[in-house]
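Appendix B, example 12.
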Amino acid sequence: MSADQTLPPLPSQPEGVAWPTKAWPEGAPAPGTDTDELARLMDLAFSDPAPETMGETHAFLAVQGGRIVAERYWRDFTAAHTYPSWSEAKSITQALIGILVRDGKVDVHAPADVPEWQEAGDPRGAITLDMLLRMSSGLKFAEDYVDAGVSDVIEMLFGNGRDDVAAYAASQPLAHDPDTVWNYSSGTTNIVARCAARALGASGDAFRDFMFRELLAPIGMVSASPKFDAAGTFIGSSFCYCTARDFARFGLLYLRDGVWDGQRLLPEGWVDYARTPTPAVPEIETLKYGAHWWLGMAGPGSFSCNGYEGQYTVLAPEKDLILVRHGKSSLEAKEAVQGWMADVAECFA
């Protein structure tokens, strides 16, 4: 793992602020926060009917200095509701790989343990977990949630690939030499999830137990509901339902450099690895990409878990800030919602 030395430092938990393993402490935003503009942005997002530009916002949560400083829900949604992760689950998968790195069970720079690629001369055998985590494997995969006719992700999650999502993804041929082209792909994450299961020697319920024992329970993410396919693979690309407060707990783990209440859950340097830019991301992408985390939504140094239809957990280290948003927004509204998140972050001092 190598880290970008220009990364902003990650803040530590303020003295006297309780870790939210059981319950979130509450407080006020930092002095100097533009609370009037924050209130205006909240009223816009939670308009009823929902604004056409953004679609529906079902839940919003802001954590600063380890305390909830703003929280709001739409209509009948509440803090007890669990919300879809969609691709926020990819960052949870990255955390699971980090735990296996911590325990010496995987090496992200070694060829990935993928049975379909083991024949002599198969060029896919050179693909590493690092390339998969950075979406630079070179595998063919069409990430299209609208046109089922050309969409590998729809076929994988809901079509012929749904019973064994990793096998479907691993069967794809190379479209480019490994580590030369960036291509966002849910298939690669499900290959990563199966690699995690193989390294652990556990799938299905045993892998779920590992997730809760090593990651979810220690930080209080008790609402988490990860989904598995018929082959027993965690569908790490797309499916781990949680409350907004539990997504914020996951964000806090990363904002605190993988340490929770004095216990290091993720290996040293793993969060920096997640937020170090991947070189091959094309200029047409609004945001940059790290290792299963997006970069830059809330300004330089910010990093985020991003999911379909506007599910976001955004971390801004320089403000010790976490923003969580869940809702139902069209692809056409994606840039408007991301812009709204950036505007909200700008309100905070």
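The two ends are 32 Å apart (CA to CA). The domain at 89-200 is CATH 1.20.58 (Methane Monooxygenase Hydroxylase; Chain G, domain 1).
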